[in-house]
Design goal:
Largest sheet: 7 strands, mixed
Distance between the termini: 171 Å
Helix content: 55-70%
Order of helices and strands: EHEHEHEEHEEEEHHEEHHHHHH
Strand order of the largest sheet: 3-2-1-4-9-6-10
């Protein structure tokens, strides 16, 4: 069995399809099939895909009989897909070369029904790549590498992005729940996501940015201005029906209602003027069918469009715009009053800033003067202390040297006296010996003279 089937619907994307197919065909996972469904293209997109298909037999080419939309094309791809897992790529986007190998291995490691990854965005006008919170799956970060389901993530489910292309789905799982796209509509990924996500038992996330979603390109499905914009109300209604079947609906009912109301009204604010009235009627019908009680309406006060929602329930299209215009006038008066008040506040603040600057200047000057005075006093104090230390040190040194000198002088004196005494003793003894010797010589001389006299007589 093929490991991954990659479904790529396309229509008039000759500028982008080559980059898309190159990134998919260059995947590190070889065991894939690429199902390309041509939705009645009028440019050279088909020829480009054929060129790639002739070079790589993993590409399967299909054609819709007439322009039918991405949902129909994707269902065609699901019917013939043979992969163990199913992935989707938009024809104007591209992917990292290891995306499907990494997602497949991640899914197989836990037998996941759905495995997803964060994505990066590419602005086609500025040619910048960036990330944002919605596509980063930040709401699921606390589940890290765990396996979870819709029930466990009931508090985060409204913050998860509903796109198809950052996920792979186990085909057996999709077949078992008979998942398919609502044909003939755009925004079909929203009900498809909630239907599959709420029925999946095993979901996990690979925390790597592997998909590049192209925004702000000309003539994209999301930017084409035609009556398909009304589909948003139908897809929101279908999504609401799916969420009402969730086990946690009663627990999160108020949050889900606010989320649905905000989503439908927000789309209304993005329309061109020519679509206002018809969209309004569909939106009003949907809001009335919600049949909210007073408690539920009261909870919607946290919605940014609460006033508009209440007005829509009670008024037709022209009554709504009368309310909007009056609200604008009131808001404009408040804005003007606020601007006037702001101007007064600005003047007050400017005066305060000038006073503050002068105060700061005076404080700085006072600090400098104090510091200079303090520094001078400290320097003088240090000079006095140094002089005192020097005098005390010199006196101590002098006393020490004097004491050492006196001791050495006394020592030398004692040594000299001892030496003198020794010399005196030596000379005294020597003088005594000399006296004895002189006496001895004198006696010898007397004896000698006596002998001389005796000899003369004889």
């Amino acid at each position: 069995m093929t490991k991954v089937s990659i479904i790529i619907p396309y229509q008039d994307v000759e500028q982008y399809i080559s980059k898309c197919l190159s990134s998919v065909l260059s995947q590190s996972l070889d065991d894939i099939e690429i199902i390309c469904i041509n939705d009645s293209s009028t440019d050279s997109s088909v020829e480009i895909v054929k060129k790639y298909a002739n070079a790589d037999d993993r590409i399967i080419m299909l054609d819709t009989e007439k322009p039918s939309g991405q949902s129909y094309a994707r269902n065609m791809g699901l019917q013939i897909a043979k992969g163990e897992y199913i992935g989707f790529v938009d024809a104007d986007d591209w992917v990292e070369l290891e995306m499907f190998e990494k997602l497949y291995n991640k899914a197989k490691s836990v037998d996941a029904d759905i495995t997803m990854c964060p994505a990066q965005l590419y602005d086609d006008k500025t040619q910048e790549i960036y990330t944002d919170e919605y596509y980063s799956l930040k709401s699921l970060e606390k589940y890290a590498d765990s396996v979870f389901n819709g029930e466990i993530t009931k508090n985060e489910i409204l913050d998860i992005n509903v796109v198809l292309w950052n996920k792979i789905y186990k085909k057996e799982f999709l077949d078992n729940i008979q998942a398919k796209f609502q044909e003939g509509f755009i925004y079909e990924d929203m009900p498809f996501f909630f239907e599959t996500y709420l029925k999946a038992n095993r979901i996990n996330v690979l925390w790597e940015n592997l998909y590049y979603y192209r925004k702000n390109r000309s003539f994209s499905t999301m930017q084409k201005a035609n009556k398909k914009v009304y589909d948003r109300v139908d897809m929101a209604a279908l999504t609401f029906d799916i969420l009402k079947q969730a086990s946690f609906y009663q627990e999160r009912q108020d949050d889900i209602l606010r989320w649905i109301v905000d989503d439908v009204f927000h789309r209304y604010t993005l329309l061109e003027d020519k679509y206002y009235e018809e969209y309004y009627e569909k939106m009003r019908s949907f809001f009335i069918d919600l049949n909210l009680n007073e408690e539920q309406k009261d909870y919607l006060r946290t919605s940014y469009c609460y006033d508009e929602f209440c007005c829509i329930l009670e008024n037709d299209y022209y009554g709504f715009w009368k309310f909007v215009i009056e609200k604008y006038r009131t808001a404009n008066k408040r804005i003007k009053y606020t601007e006037h008040k702001c101007n007064e506040d600005v003047t007050t603040i400017k005066n305060y800033i000038e006073e503050y600057k002068q105060q700061v200047k005076e404080e700085k000057e006072a600090i400098v003067a104090w510091w200079q005075n303090y520094t001078f006093q400290e320097v003088e104090k240090k000079k006095y202390e140094m002089q005192k230390w020097r005098n005390d040190s010199m006196r101590e040194q002098e006393e020490k040297l004097t004491a050492d000198y006196k001791w050495k002088l006394e020592e030398q004196k004692q040594h000299f006296m001892q030496s003198l005494q020794e010399q005196k003793y030596y000379y005294e003894n020597h003088y005594f010996l000399v006296k004895i010797m002189l006496k001895a010589y004198k006696k010898l001389d007397q004896i000698h003279n006596k002998f001389k006299k005796i000899l003369k007589k004889n």
